[in-house]
Specification:
This protein is mostly helical. Helix content is about 70%, strand content about 5%.
């Protein structure tokens, strides 16, 4: 039995925390649901009704499909990379060192999870869409409560709104690995920030099995562990992150006799360099403008907010930009930069101080989200 006086002391301290948790959960679900609803309406209702001429879409796995017009259905969520994940989830990996496209370019955890859901009887398009959307919801929850603990409720709300409504959040709904990658990296960063090193290592290892840029967590954790004089387990967690990448490399060595098959196959994908991108900027090419703003603007934002962000978030942001630069995958640089959760945190802090700027940005984000969803539905390059 707890004396009445003790209960009177304990209950008021627990109730606000519980209420904050429920309020946060509701806010995250509303942001996720409304932004996903906008995408669904744009893809399933608006895109099929537009009077565009049929196109010959360039599916990397199906070849050119002539006279394509989008029709409402789950298939619209599986364009571009979704076609590759379908091949991996249904037929496994293929590779030959012949300079052509092969599915080994895509990391295994996301299609493995999809395959697991498909075993319940769901078709690929449904399973892949559900996995990515639910993972994206999980990422928003981790981000919200991490930001709330660090910076307060207003920043948490703005950061969640930014990551939900940014046009590139489209890739948290279609069959891409964005949702899962954001979930794993955000969970890893939050755990390491809270000195939960074993959890951080586990989340991080799964991140490197999802996307190559997950390796940015390794220098992040090692640098922060050194700067903050953390225990040896923090260094172990940082090194353990590479397990996901090493396992995939080992699989490639056994299956294809090339432990770097996922690197060598990248030669088949033509990539812009910064010279090409800046040349296109001069012609007012909107995609190249977006690449420049996202990459260099993201770097400036991190530097501008360097005293506000935690050392973990700040270091991860810069390390990921360095990894993106090193890989040279600049065709999709905007999407990769969107996947740096530190930038959503930074904008959350900024918009909490300047909400009018935040509301204007959210309006522009909403318009861009609709536009990108329509482009994706028509098999047009959307990042």
């Amino acid at each position: 039995m707890i004396p009445r006086k003790s209960r009177d002391v304990i209950e008021p301290t627990l109730e606000p925390k519980s209420r904050n948790w429920v309020d946060g959960l509701i806010f995250v679900i509303v942001m996720w649901l409304l932004s996903r609803l906008v995408i669904v309406v744009a893809m399933q209702l608006i895109a099929p009704s537009l009077p565009f001429s049929p196109v010959n879409h360039p599916s990397p796995t199906l070849g050119v499909v002539p006279n394509f017009v989008p029709k409402s259905g789950w298939e619209l969520f599986s364009h571009w990379d979704g076609a590759w994940y379908r091949q991996i989830a249904t037929r496994g990996y293929d590779y030959a060192n012949d300079g052509k496209y092969h599915s080994v370019a895509f990391f295994p955890l996301f299609p493995l999870v999809i395959r697991g859901v498909m075993s319940l009887g769901l078709p690929f398009n449904v399973a892949g869409t559900l996995v990515n959307n639910l993972a994206f919801l999980g990422a928003l929850l981790f981000l919200y409560f991490w930001a709330q603990a660090r910076h307060g409720t207003k920043v948490a709300q703005w950061a969640t709104a930014v990551i939900s409504w940014c046009p590139f959040s489209l890739f948290g709904t279609v069959i891409y690995s964005e949702g899962l990658f954001l979930l794993l990296t955000t969970a890893a960063l939050r755990a390491f920030d809270n000195h939960q090193h074993i959890r951080a290592g586990l989340w991080g290892a799964m991140a490197t099995a999802t996307r190559a840029t997950g390796v940015a967590l390794i220098p992040t954790f090692l640098w922060v562990a050194w700067r903050e004089h953390r225990a040896a387990i923090a260094y172990v967690a940082g090194l353990a992150i590479g397990v996901g990448l090493l396992l995939f490399s080992g699989y490639c060595a056994i299956r294809f006799g090339d432990h770097l098959a996922f690197v060598h196959v990248q030669r088949a994908w033509w990539q812009r360099d910064w010279l090409n991108i800046f040349a296109e900027v001069l012609t007012l090419h909107i995609g190249s403008w977006t690449r420049v703003v996202m990459f260099f603007g993201g770097g400036y934002l991190l530097w501008h907010m360097r005293t506000e962000l935690s050392r973990v978030a700040l270091t991860y942001g810069f390390c990921t930009l360095a990894v993106i630069q090193a890989t040279g995958a600049f065709n999709s640089v905007s999407r990769y930069v969107y996947g740096i959760v530190s930038l959503s945190l930074a904008l959350g802090i900024l918009f909490a101080r300047h909400p009018r700027c935040g509301y204007v940005t959210m309006g522009l984000f909403g318009i861009g989200l609709v536009d990108l969803a329509i482009l994706f539905s028509w098999w047009k390059w959307a990042g």
